[in-house]
Structures are given as C-alpha cells and as structure tokens.
Amino acid sequence: MATPEAQHGSPPAPAPVPEAVTLLLVRHGMTDVTGPKLAGRAPGVHLNDTGRVQATHLARRLEGLTASALISSPLERCQETADAVAERLGLPVTTDERFIECDYGSWTGRSLTELSEEPLWRVVQDQPSAARFPGGEALATASARAVEAVRDWNGHVADQVSEPEDDTPRVPPVYVVCSHGDIIKAIVADALGMHLDLFQRLRVDPCSVTSLTYTRSRPFINGINDTGEALAAGLPTATEAKGEAAVGGGSGASGRTEQA
C-alpha cells in the first residue's frame, strides 16, 4: 500500500496549512457485473465497453485540471479508470489499498436479487453501521479506513503547496481519488457530518465525480454524483423509487437506460 508517509519517509517539518484542499472522488466505470451482482474484491473484474467510454468521457471532463495527485483503489476497474484520467492529467497513478472496495465476504459475486432475501440485507439498508458481511468486513471498518486515508492525503497534498509570495488568495490544491460506490458514500457521509446509518440516502453512479473541499473549519460539498449527463439521465426509475439502496453502488444511468 502506497501512503503519503511511505512515499516520503519521515514526516516533513511542519509547514503552514493551506486554507483548503479539494478532493475529487471518482467512482470506477461500468463492468459486466456492475448493478446485477456485488463484485466486491473479486479479481479480474475489468471495465466493459460502456465503462471504457465512460472513463474516456470522464478524462475529457477533467482535462485542464491541475491536480497534485491521482490515487486509486488497487482493483482493476479502478486502475483502468484512473489510467484513462492519468493520460489527460499527466500524473502517475498511486495505489492506496485503503480506498479498496468493502470486503463483502461470502456476499461477493452474488446477485443483489438473491442477497435481498438475506436477513442481513435489512441491516445493510437500515442500520449499515451495524452490518458486518459474513467472512468479510464491517461497513463501519471500511468507512474508518477510507476516511483515515482522506485525512492523510489532505495533509500530504497541503504540505506540498509552496508559500505564496504575497497575500493574493490561493486556489486550493486538488487531488483525485478513484474508488468504489460504498467507499465514496462513506467519505461523503463523514464530510457531511452524517451518521453512517444514513449513508444509503446517497447515490454514487459509475464514473461520477463528487467534489469536496476541506477547510480549516469544515468540509464543503461542491457537487455529488456529477456524471456530466443530462439531468433526465439521473432521475430514478420506478424500481429505484421503492427506496432500496443499491449495495455496492449500482449501475447508475447505464442501468436506468437498460431498464427504460
């Protein structure tokens, strides 16, 4: 696992902290199992044709952005999405295992329709802070390690900013993290001061961008689940409107198009 500390050895001497740091959270693009099944940490899950198009579109949207770092989950679908962005940003991809998908244990690879019959499903939906997947990870544990990673990277990115030569206001440095639906939702919930039991109210579609700015006093949400698509593409279907959250994040606009 590459972490800010591992990259730079002992911590640098304390420096004045910038007023703010902006984090762009990117969810990976579509795969053949995104939506109907819970891919989890299963190896060999790559972007499909739709996902590759999404990643290319995402890279175009981020072109011209001056970013300090590009970090990714180690799983293939995130690495492939991050690689598309890296070409446009001119940055290497740094892997941080703390942004990996939640370990869904024996739920991995099973269909969401099948999983919805499990007693644990209602816990995941209604009280996710109490959910631990059989043979896997607790959602609260996944949330804690992802939020810790964000705190570390915020500090690392801030430390790389040179002091201004005058009092001109400085644009906050920006970094990009490519991760997974439930991980991004947990990070956003933390930024909002929202209990993890409410994080199923959030939606993070494939190749969406969520922008958070962390200041000295509090985080600010600049935008959530921005796919760059027309507004109509983000409206829920009748199935989604029933109130069940898509564990793992769901297929987003691609799934809605297929259901239409």
Descriptive key words:
Rossmann fold; six-stranded mixed β-sheet; disordered C terminus; alpha/beta; 260 residues; globular; 33% helix
Write up what this structure looks like.
The protein contains 8 helices and 6 strands; from the N terminus they run H-E-H-E-H-E-H-H-H-E-H-E-E-H. The chain is α/β, with parallel strands linked by helices and 260 residues long. It has one domain: Phosphoglycerate mutase-like (Rossmann fold, 3-Layer(aba) Sandwich). Strands 3-2-4-1-5-6 form a 6-stranded mixed sheet, sandwiched between helices. Helix 2 packs parallel to helix 3 and helix 6 crosses helix 7. The longest helix has 21 residues. It is globular and about 60 Å long.
List the helices and strands and how they pair.
Layout: H1 4-8, E1 20-27, H2 49-62, E2 69-72, H3 76-89, E3 93-95, H4 112-115, H5 119-126, H6 139-159, E4 174-179, H7 181-192, E5 209-215, E6 219-226, H8 252-259
Parallel strand pairs: 1-4, 2-3, 2-4
Antiparallel strand pairs: 1-5, 5-6
Helix pairs in contact: 2-3, 6-7
CATH architectural grouping: 3-Layer(aba) Sandwich
| CATH topology tier name | Rossmann fold
Q: Distance between the terminal alpha carbons, to the nearest Å?
A: 41 Å
CATH class: Alpha Beta
Instruction: List the secondary-structure elements in sequence, H or E.
Output: HEHEHEHHHEHEEH
Percentage of residues assigned to helices: 25-40%
Q: In what order do the strands lie side by side in the largest sheet?
A: 3-2-4-1-5-6
Rounded radius of gyration (Å): 18 Å
Q: Quaternary status of these chains?
A: single chain
| Category from helices, strands and their pairing | alpha/beta
Main sheet overview: 6 strands, mixed
